[in-house]
Amino acid sequence: MRQLGFSYKATAKSPVLLDEVHFVAQRASYFRYLDELRAAGALIYYHDETWLGAGEEKRNIWVDDQGKGRLRKQDGQGKRIAISAMMGLEGFVEPIDVWQCDKDHAMNSERFHKWIEDAASRLRIKHGPGQPIAIIIDNAPWHNVLCDDTKPPQRAWTKYKLQQWLTRKGIAWDVKMSKTELLKLALSNVPPKRYVTNTIPRAFDVEILRLP
User: Fold this and answer.
1) How crowded is residue 182: how many other Cβ atoms within 10 Å of its Cβ?
2) How far apart are CA 55 and CA 91, in angstroms?
3) Fewest beta carbons less than 10 Å away: which of 80, 129, 138, 185?
4) Of residues 105, 126, 117, the one with CA closest to residue 208
């Protein structure tokens, strides 16, 4: 380290890069909830997504006694196989979603919502009622789509649309208010975030825990 220009000093006298306070708080909340799930005997599953390019196959691979196991090479450039799956202590569990995509990653919220509903349903059927179950996911954009009733107002909205939003929320507003005043009032009354990804599994009594 000294050869790289570093010196070993007491932290009280030298500046140290620290994580943002909100991230440290999120991390503490995450591990506390994870401890609570484990203490309750919850079955915990970890979800992730990845993809594999058509030209990324190795020259030497493992195959079974019938010669099967390789990924078929596809014509053209840029084609990929995307994979969405979860695993628990028993290894990978169904459903495992595999599909071909032409972009870097073709996952979207609609596809993921269908997957999470199928996954939660299968887990509940497999383990029966009463067994605590949780799925841990990351914060990919398609995991964080808000429910319609918790979506915040947008700056690009018209004055009339802001008035409608305030009325639906039961928030009093004055007809003399400008668009800026209406927007400020609306933003100060945004309801707590509620994610579609959380509400779907809840129908099967399955919890969602997000990585910080």
Assistant:
1) 22
2) 27
3) 129
4) 117
* Three-state DSSP class for residue 30: helix
pLDDT < 50 positions in the chain: 73-76
CA distance 25 to 28: 5
Cα separation of 194 and 144, whole Å?
9
**pLDDT at residue 14 in the model:** 57
pLDDT per position as a tens digit, 87-120? 999 899 999 998 887 655 567 899 999 999 999 9
What number of residues does the chain have? Answer: 212
d(CA 37, CA 42): 5
Distance CA 211, CA 137 (A): 6
Q: Strand pairing partners for 84? A: 49, 97
The DSSP annotation for 98-134 comes to: EEEESSS----HHHHHHHHHHHHHHHHHHH-TT--EE
User: Mean pLDDT, the chain, as a whole number?
Assistant: 85
Task: Give the tokens for residue 166.
Answer: 């305030």
Give residues with Cβ within 8 angstroms of 169, minimum separation 6. 189, 191
Q: Please state the domain extents for the chain.
A: 23-52+74-147+192-212, 153-189
Distance separating alpha carbons of residues 82 and 106, to the nearest angstrom: 7
Q: What is the CATH number of domain 23-52+74-147+192-212?
A: 3.30.420
**How many angstroms separate the CA atoms of 4 and 67, rounded?**
51
